[in-house]
Amino acid sequence: MSITIRHITKKFGNFTALENVSLEVPSGCLLALLGPSGSGKTSLLRIIAGLEHADRGSILFQDEDVTRQAARDRGVGFVFQHYALFRHMTVFENVAFGMRVRKLPKAEVNERVHELLALVRLEGLGHRYPSELSGGQRQRVALARALAVRPRMLLLDEPFGALDAKVRQELRSWLRRLHEEMHVTTVFVTHDQEEAFEVADKVVVMRQGKIEQIGTPQQVFDHPATPFVMDFLGNVNVFHGRVQAGTAHVGPFQLAYDDYQHDEPREATAYVRPHELEIERSPSTTAALQGVVVQINPSGAVVKVRVRLDEFGLELTVDLVRDRAQLLALKLNDVVFVRPKSARVFMPEIEYSI
Ligand SMILES: Nc1ncnc2c1ncn2[C@@H]1O[C@H](COP(=O)(O)OP(=O)(O)OP(=O)(O)O)[C@@H](O)[C@H]1O
């Protein structure tokens, strides 16, 4: 079941929470709404759910206009960050609840609950109470409960937000696998870019009530449409400067820049991700700048290195793959040379990659 969002505007008093937002969620897609706090993600999710009504615009489920339909008639399943399971009910009863309300036959309810508990990998825990489960298990019960009434789509608002990093990580891959089994159209709110990129087929980056970019995780990461998206994706070295006559003078770097050949200088900002910087023991080009290693942190598959460029009063973050780090055998206070392998330069209204 696809979702079409057309020109949605939502105000709270004088404050515009969503401004003319349009979006298509294809059937069977797992889409992440990603953005900083207050960017309008939850408001949009609540409008899709029917828990909130837009001032302008419409919502369609497939070809059906549901804009004025009440939440209970829309057939959506929800999971929220602090999803309150019924504490006095067992896991089994929590999952069965919606079906009992709909007065489904007992045998059918039993069968479906068992099926769902297997799906969320909680077989054998039906007799427990929520207080006897871990946070991650509770969120899986919440998801089973949302799925019990065969919703037309799933809406998840920071479902793993309250859990610790390791459990979040497990639940992300679990959610992805579950989605591949079920193919229920799902909209997922998160402010965590890693989570969005790992789980979603499509990512929508929001800012101040508007959509900044829509794309696959790869498209958004490799081709951020705006400086905001680049910045929000985090962990980026930012250099301000100008472009002029085929050269970008950004921060300490002078880079060949063929796309702008005019003599008239234009203001520009360059963004270089940590993995786009190279560290060398001796300078291979004139673009390499001398610095001192001030921090070395192994972090998963990469080693994060901070290099201070005293001459420019700057510190850069560089990600080295393990092999490269081993080869360089860096130590604190080593003198090294840093060189950008690639950079993304934004001029107001124009973006180029070099
Ligand atoms: N009922 C309300 N009354 C007044 N303002 C509201 C209401 N709901 C949301 N807002 C405001 O609208 C803006 C968008 O809120 P929303 O919850 O959609 O953002 P969000 O991107 O989901 O943020 P978060 O990640 O913090 O939940 C915020 O500035 C918020 O304060």
UniProtKB/TrEMBL annotation:
GO terms for cellular component: ATP-binding cassette (ABC) transporter complex. SUPFAM superfamilies: MOP-like, P-loop containing nucleoside triphosphate hydrolases. InterPro entries: AAA+_ATPase, ABC_SmlMolc_Importer, ABC_transporter-like_ATP-bd, ABC_transporter-like_CS, CysA_C, Mo/tungstate-bd_C_term_dom, P-loop_NTPase, Sulph_transpt1. Transmembrane segments: none annotated. It comes from the Bacteria. Pfam families: ABC_tran, CysA_C_terminal, TOBE_3. This is Sulfate transport system ATP-binding protein. Keywords: ATP-binding, Cell membrane, Membrane, Nucleotide-binding, Sulfate transport, Translocase, Transport. Gene3D superfamilies: P-loop containing nucleotide triphosphate hydrolases (3.40.50.300). Residues 3-233 form the ABC transporter domain. One of its GO terms (molecular function) is ATP binding. It comes from Planctomicrobium piriforme.
